[in-house]
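quick q for whoever's on today - can somebody do inverse folding on this one?? i tried earlier but teh output was garbage lol. tokens:
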């Protein structure tokens, strides 16, 4: 399974993923590291942008509100998104089925504790670089700080590369075993992927501390569902009508206040 072509693909994903991972906190922060961007980009580089878009959207819903603020170290959603996309696309080059996409998402989510440990260790190591630079002589302090900054970037890059080199072969082996699993298991994984947006929406609602259900949101969902079942309106039209109705409801409520 791990032939020369596969090894080159893993190496390329590791290098590109390492560069994308710098955007999390180390450099840039242009939001390229977000799953909704990193996963489709990885899928496009491997020849299946659609798989990356699906995986990125699912993972973005789960970790959209995890921000590296203060001492909080969030889950490395970039590694999860890139790994899940690469595993799905490399396992099924002709187009990953829904079951493989769901398994890849579940597999990458299971690696979160490991990636968080690696991220915490690298942050601790980088803090030592700052201490070493501060203890240098005054004339050499600026040069030491510059070197410490560059060394910190390199350590974050190498951390991501090592994670990909370790996780991708293991993920590909696990995906190969999953393809040999009974049909019932694969059907369950398809259902898991289809229901995952509900989990993401529930997490967003919980973290936003929404204590009561917005009547306009509930009305929009009910109206959209009835329109789809009775009038057979296209999904794009339903989404547009629901958004417009919700916006009008919010405007009405603000005017009454």
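ok took a stab at it. sequence:
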């Amino acid at each position: 399974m791990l032939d020369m072509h596969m090894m080159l693909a893993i190496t390329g994903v590791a290098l590109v993923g390492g560069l994308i991972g710098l955007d999390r906190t180390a450099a840039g922060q242009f939001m390229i590291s977000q799953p909704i961007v990193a996963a489709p980009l990885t899928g496009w580089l491997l020849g299946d942008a659609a798989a990356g878009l699906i995986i990125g959207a699912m993972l973005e819903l789960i970790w959209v509100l995890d921000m590296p603020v203060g001492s909080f170290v969030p889950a490395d959603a970039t590694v999860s998104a890139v790994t899940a996309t690469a595993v799905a696309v490399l396992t099924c080059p002709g187009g990953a089925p829904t079951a493989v996409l769901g398994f890849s998402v579940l597999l990458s989510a299971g690696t979160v504790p490991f990636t968080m440990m690696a991220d915490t260790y690298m942050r601790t190591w980088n803090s030592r670089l700052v201490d070493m630079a501060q203890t240098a002589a005054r004339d050499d302090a600026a040069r030491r700080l510059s070197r410490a900054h560059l060394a910190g970037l390199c350590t974050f890059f190498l951390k991501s590369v090592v994670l990909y080199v370790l996780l991708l072969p293991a993920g590909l082996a696990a995906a190969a075993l999953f393809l040999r699993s009974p049909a019932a298991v694969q059907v369950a994984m398809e259902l898991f992927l289809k229901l995952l947006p509900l989990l993401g929406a529930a997490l967003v609602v919980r973290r936003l501390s929404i204590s009561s259900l917005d009547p306009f949101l509930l009305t929009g969902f009910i109206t959209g569902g009835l329109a789809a079942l009775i009038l057979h309106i296209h999904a794009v039209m339903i989404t547009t009508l629901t958004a417009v109705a919700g916006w009008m409801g919010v405007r009405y409520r603000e005017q009454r206040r």
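fwiw DSSP finds ten helices and no strands in the chain. also Residues 212-257 form one domain. so keep that in mind when u check it
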